[in-house]
Amino acid sequence: MQGRSSAKSLDRPEALETSPQLQRFPEAYPQAIRQAQVAVTAALADGCKLLEVEFPTASLASVPGDAEGANEMTLSMGFLRQFCRIFQTKADSVRIFFPDEKELQVAKRGLSSKTAENIGGDFDVTRFNLDYLTKPTGLLDLGIDINKFNLATRAQATDDLFIIAYPHFNVNEMIAVEELYSGAAEASGVPIIVFNGELDRIRSGYYPSLFYPKIGRLAKQFIPKFEVCYYIHNFKGTRGGVLFRCYPGPWQVLRRQGDDLQLIHTQETAPSLKDVALNILK
């Protein structure tokens, strides 16, 4: 991929403390990563098996697409490496699936670029088990997978956690995640964490079911099973704001007033993005 950018490093998180209290919106990425770690730790302790972590990567006030897609994946890779520190003591039993074979190589070895020296390579030295979801070809975009393999067979008996790294570039990536769940994780009870998978695209009907029937089934049967542990979605415009959640706390809607954020609404269940934009913020 072209035009990737290097991710900034984050501070090492301090000892984790879980709390059901209302969390404040993070001021910077180190705080956001720490909040995500706390939220996931609490959700795993509560027995959640499908967990979602989602936040923008260009800035905490950005939306998907503000940075070029490959750059967003590079940034997600760096943030994922920081997030995974909470699992460092059991890294040998954690399997991280990158979107495809090429992204796995970028995570392990980096990618040469004319504009930057160090791109990717965040997992060049690690005890985590590294794997990939798909092996794309030109035919895969047409729904013809000549390199089809059973992802469930890649799981090992020693795995006790699967982390899925930013599976949003191709619709087949989340289809593979569902296959991993139904073929291995569901029966074994191994939790799956989807990190920056942009699952809202599937929830919102971005992919029409007529043309993407498998994604339509995911939207109805698989995606609703996820516990949204950490979530930031920004709304731009004259009445911009943020939808924010940090498990086990409620969903918060905050209105932007200049450089400040004002909490204007909370609720226990997730509101739709349409409801936040058209009703709560306005």
From TrEMBL:
<dbReference type="InterPro" id="IPR044687">
    <property type="entry name" value="LPA3"/>
</dbReference>
<feature type="domain" description="DUF1995">
    <location>
        <begin position="26"/>
        <end position="277"/>
    </location>
</feature>
<dbReference type="Pfam" id="PF09353">
    <property type="entry name" value="DUF1995"/>
</dbReference>
<dbReference type="InterPro" id="IPR018962">
    <property type="entry name" value="DUF1995"/>
</dbReference>
<protein>
    <recommendedName>
        <fullName>DUF1995 domain-containing protein</fullName>
    </recommendedName>
</protein>
<feature type="region of interest" description="Disordered">
    <location>
        <begin position="1"/>
        <end position="23"/>
    </location>
</feature>
